[in-house]
Design goal:
Layout: H1 8-12, H2 27-40, E1 43-48, E2 56-58, E3 65-67, E4 74-82, E5 89-96, E6 101-110, E7 113-122, E8 130-133, E9 136-138, H3 140-143, E10 165-173, E11 183-190, E12 201-205, H4 206-212, H5 221-229, H6 247-256, H7 265-278, E13 281-286, E14 296-298, E15 302-305, E16 311-320, E17 327-335, E18 339-348, E19 351-359, E20 369-371, E21 374-376, H8 393-397, E22 404-411, E23 421-428, E24 441-445, H9 446-452, H10 461-470
Parallel strand pairs: 6-11, 18-23
Antiparallel strand pairs: 1-16, 2-3, 4-5, 4-13, 6-7, 6-9, 7-8, 7-12, 10-11, 14-15, 15-16, 16-17, 18-19, 18-21, 19-20, 19-24, 22-23
Length: 473
Amino acid sequence: MVHSAIHEDTARDGRSDAVADDAVMSMADFHSWFNARARANSFRVDRIPFADLSGWDFEPDTGNLVHASGRFFSVEGLRVRTDRPWVSEWAQPIIVQPEIGVLGILVKRFDGVPHCLMQAKMEPGNINGLQISPTVQATRSNYMKVHGGAATKYMEYFRPGSRGRVLFDGLQSEQGSWFLHKRNRNIVVETDDDVPLDEDFCWLTLDQIRRLLRLDHMVNMDSRTVLACVPPALARPDARIDGDGSFVAAVHRSLSGRGRAVHDPGHVLSWLTEVRARQELVQRRVPLKEIAEDGWRLGHEVIDHQDGKYFDVVAVSVEASNREVSSWTQPLVAPRQSGLLVLLVKRIGGTLHALVQARSDAGTLNIAELTATVHCQPGNYADAPAEHRPPYLDYALAAPPGRVRLDVVHSEEGGRFYHAQNRYLVIEVEDDFAPEPDDRFLWTTLGQLMSLLSHSNYLTVELRSLMAGLRSF
């Protein structure tokens, strides 16, 4: 662990007083610590044939890829029928993981300033190996030690009966394109205990984490979804809410719930309920081998689509010196190209609004969830007719740099996806921008989106990443 005195980096974090606890570090010390953890731990990920998977096999009758324990997850087939105008029916592989995992951040105050206990964690699908993870990031199979390895560190703070104060606790969805009905428990707990500090963990202020959120491939998806849910009251007050008319001030004011919204909360909820009531999304699990009829090729080393689009399913062997189990094999979903998530924002009546869409994905649990204005893999639409390209995709791609307020590339869930990455953009549109008539899109304030996070299955994990990014201003 790197220890140092407080200097100008931490003063910018709102800490002007001396801190006695040597667990607190500056930003410079964080980067030194993070690099040291990368050097101290050994990681290796290799692609392997499916036949070399240990504990995994294809079921003879269904062709489903399953684990011998009956736990963790399986890769199965899914048939989907929707009322989309273009490609309304299809089949695909899907990850089925019915168990609910825990994504938890432990909070402790040092000299009155909240700090989050974050982890430098390797996942096999991460582009750069090590990323900043929550205090606890574990499936039920993992924290129940089905793998036969070590216990999940700090899990005791997130179990019933712990002495911590729960600041947030809710079930949130994950990627509906590749998971069927997947949810995880997102939980934030504050403690007054003296917490033993493991060498792969560090305490960071929310301001420090905000800076890291602006770096590519630094803060992992599991951290971003929990950070989006952190109660605003935990963050330090910001005088810029009523400040200088800047975009930063507009973000903070919109997040705070001040200012007039175009639609009241009841209208927002009724609109989404109406979309869910009328939109068709029929999901049927089928044997994995059945989707070969729909262009999916089930090979010895990869499951892929004959069109060269969408995603593959691959197998990997993993060695990691700082995980509960030091080596294992597993399947991963490998997207064929990067995704694009764009949130268009506009000041309406002096209040910053975001243009969100109600979107259905193959594995969505509750018909539709709110997501970014643009949510797609652009390469999948390269040969699509103009009328079937995602709305606002071309607008976003042609946006002048001066309108871009956030531009960062984040990795997605490295425990299930291989080198999955999305480019996250926030674009402030012109004053005369008017959306095309489309009842799948609606203007909401950032505060309204924050209030919906207290409920399950309202915001996609991708929109939560964008909310975490906006809260980094």
